[in-house]
Amino acid sequence: MLTIGMGALLILIGYFLGLYFFDSAIAGLFIATLVWAILSLVGYFQGDSILLSMSRAKKIKRDDHPRLYNVVEEMKIASGLEKMPDIYIIDDPALNAFATGRDPNKASVAITSGLLQKLNRDELQGVIAHEISHVKNRDVLLMSMCSILLGTIVILAWYGSRLALFGAMTGGRRSSSRGGGQGNMIILVVSLVFMILAPIMAQLIYFAISRKREYLADASAALYTRYPEGLASALEKLGSSTGQLKSANQATAPMYIVNPFRKKGMKASDLSSTHPPISERIRILRAMAGGGYTCRRHCRRSSSIINDKTGG
Questions:
Q1: How many independent structural domains does the chain possess?
Q2: pTM tops 0.85
């Protein structure tokens, strides 16, 4: 429903642009659809390459980092992905990670070098499971398409509002036969108000979609690892870190496991956040763990004792 809401905003902005500039809503809708279609094609076929290039991520093989490769392979099997995702490392001390790829057969997982240094195996497994969940749940494609919708709305609103103001100041717009100057002024005011509000509303919807998909990825990660505490512990470390990812920007922020521009003390009701509060995510994960956390620790302890006695 949120995604449909963003689409409705795009249709409305095209409607008002066409009504004001061409006296035809159809013309405005055609232009809005054309811009959206072009950006969507670029994002669908080149979006993952653009994101990886912007983050300065470097692809690795099994021999480059066996532990990381093994963890990704485990989570690939647990999630049921048919193809092994490509693995990238971002040379940055900040703690973060993201997944990209328009479908499971063209998926990649990227994590920072700082994350590799700070997390133990269980925590790393939780983070990787979270990112692979985004691939499995098609969140990467969904968020890419939503970001393109948002970008199209922002572009049309920015250029449309400035052209409308320029036309109003110079008197360059011809009078419409359906209302004269007064009708033009009403259309101009309504169009300008909507072009100012539409990008703000679209961004809030985009943030809401991002937060919901983060909760879903956390839940899926707990399902794949059978150990919610691993991701909860990793999120604690990510939340306490102060470093910000140098290669991140506002457009790519929703793709990361935690907001690279997060601020301390952000409230759960903050509508301008791309991610849910880390404390809330940790609370939910530990509530999900229940007795399973104790059971897994007991099984590990038992396995350790057996290995010590048998030399295995």
A1: 1
A2: no
